[in-house]
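(Deposited chain)
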Amino acid sequence: MLRRLRDLENWTVAGADDTDVGNVEDSYFDDQRWTVRYLVVNAGGWLVGNSVLVSPMAVGLVEWEKSKIHVMLSREHVQNAPKLQADVPVTRGYEADYSRYYGYPYYWVGTGLWGINPEPPVMGAPGAEPLPAGVDGEPESTHLRSAKEASGYHIHALEGEIGHAEDFLFDGATWTIRYLVIDTSNWIGGRTVLLSPDWGRRVDWNNREIHVDMSRDAVKGSPEYNPTMEMSPEYEERLHGHYRRPAYWK
């Protein structure tokens, strides 16, 4: 099932020791596979530095109706994890240290979306699994982007701007971003449309622009998305048929 990514903001993150770890304040997705790799959690007053990263590999039960995410981590596990520095990009080297601490496989090593897995493997406490070997050859590189920041990016069709990204729809099983939710209110009067990251030509991260490989007329005539309604298979079929793009689920 597809979910709105920004709906997770302010959700409660509950730890394995029945204490609250904190509240979701943002999420980081990678700019190569467009998959959510971490939730950014504000740990409140109990942890110096406040913000910590929680991988989907730590997520157990998600209570969508109660806006609550249960993780298999205690406060002690989180407190002793590699520290996240404010206003400093998360590098591949930091991710490697983070993965080694928790005993997680490197999601960027392997042919699967999550290492060798199509979905994030549910992992236990630090040290519960063998530590992964090898690391990316660019420890200072970074491929993570803030969903909160990217939600304001301008979207450009082949002939010019069509609106801005308002939110993202992600797959609740794989955590992959399937669609950008586009607000076109400054162009065609407020219709909300969806575009897949796979239909993009390029992303200008410095200028906050996403360029897609389709015409303005094609976007204008696309099936309108209703943010208040649950995504249906029939709508996705119409959307992909309109753009003549292959379905990711086949």
